[in-house]
Amino acid sequence: MSFAVRRLQKELSKIHKDGLPQGISLVKADDFDEWLLDIRVFGENPLYKGQRFRLKFKFGNNYPIEPPEVTFTTGLERQIPMHPHIYSNGIICLDLLSPSQGWSPVQNVESVCVSIQSMLASNRKNERPEGNDEFVARNTKSPKHINFVYDDPTV
Amino acid sequence: MSSSAPASRRNSAISNKSTSTTTPDKPTPTHLDLRTLRYVSPPDDNLCCPICHSPFLDPIQTRCRHTFCSDCIAEALKNSETCPIDRKPITDEGLSPAPILIANMVNDLVVYCPNAENGCTETVPRHLVEGHVRETCGWVQVECGVGGCKEMVRRNETSMECLHRLVKCEFCLEEVRRMDLDIHYDTCAGISTDCPHCLTDYKRSDWKSHVQSCPEASIPCSSSVYGCPTILPRREMARHESTCSFVHLTPVFRRHESQISELALENRMLRRRLDLLYPRATQPESNTNSEEPQGPSVLDEQTYHILSEQEHLRTDLDRLSESMVALEMKHTMHFINENMRVKEEMVAMRTAINGVRMQMHWLLNMRAQAPFQPMMPMMGMGVMQQQAQVVAQGGTTTQGGETVQRRHSEHQNVKL
Fold it and tell me: Which InterPro entries match (chain B) (predicted)?
């Protein structure tokens, strides 16, 4: 049993035992490769009010030393949220998810969800990142291997 | 019936045995992975490594006084040389063993024996688990050792007697290993067993044939297929059958059965022939009639295939003949058009020739009259020159010495 699987088992049993913070719910965790979670944003932010967004976590064998690949996915009544750091193909530009910069093995699925939830909650701009169309059209890399420049401390 | 139950029991016995013999990977202390241990009570979160979320193994403290398992922090530092918690830069030199208090607390956590799934019920403090597995756990595979035997055996099954020794089964005289004797007894053909019907003892090997003839075994009436519900012990069946009306009627049933099957066969043949002769008319009939689903469906399939093929060919033929007609029409039209044009041209040529002929006549007449009118040749010469010019340009017709205007218009006519 690999390190990642043991750690994810522990996280999963903790989620089942203690539950997840408000607005976050586990949709699918049938294996230790890919989990789906739904998040909702509370408060009066009109951009996301009443909506649910689906996050897809893909874990590698080196989790939690390396970060999981976290993207938004579309689905039944699930859209990609409008945000200046979220591309329309679901890729999230967040330093926390970068292997070399923000990630720390102390993070877990729950803490990543909470970070993304607050990143949405504090946003006021109804826009996509600069160069979204070009990026979405040509990007073939997995989000983990894209060199984002994390320069915006406001959101 | 009689043989399947012991067979399945034997299989399960074998699978049990095989699981118990696969355990030797675990026992050797070097293979014991402390990360896989199960804790009796859920450990305190403060004693769990923030990276692996398990109680610390060999706890290490960073310079910023955070504690991790030594393996976990080593892995994390390979990726990024900062403390995973507060991101302060650290290197291998910045690491030191955690306070002994912490190490003692995690080492005293009570765990289940790693062989718990095989049956060991012991729980021991974590730092003693290796010793337990190495020395005392009864579920670890060890060498038998009796009389130099090298085979493996579970520690709690070791005794003065080697379990791998071959012993003779007292019932069937077959040689089996001592440890397999109990399993062998379950299936041994030499052991006698009670017939459940007549309660007499039979050897297991003879039992099967005995059940076929045991007078106490319950059997159904021989006419049960025709509807007799009676089930009686074999010895009473003869009496029942002498009075059973189903048995008396059996010959009649049999005859009817054979007749029906013959008729069904004949019916099938006839339907097949009918289908071939009138495919469309019989289609719905064969669909609604589900008496013989197997035969007709195969036949129908083939027939339909042929019919559809025929239909295809017919449409192809239709299309081809249509295009043939169209082609013919086109050709005819083309031919007619061409013909018209040629005819018109011929008419035009004929008129042109007539004109030339008239002119010739006129010229000959002129020449014949020439000696009598000396002034005429001058004029005639001029007219002739003009006319020859015009004829050379387009085969113009002209009527004698008429005006150029007239010839011009005729020239246009010819062009039409």
Answer: Znf_C3HC4_RING-type (IPR018957), Znf_RING (IPR001841), Znf_RING/FYVE/PHD (IPR013083), Znf_RING_CS (IPR017907), Znf_TRAF (IPR001293)
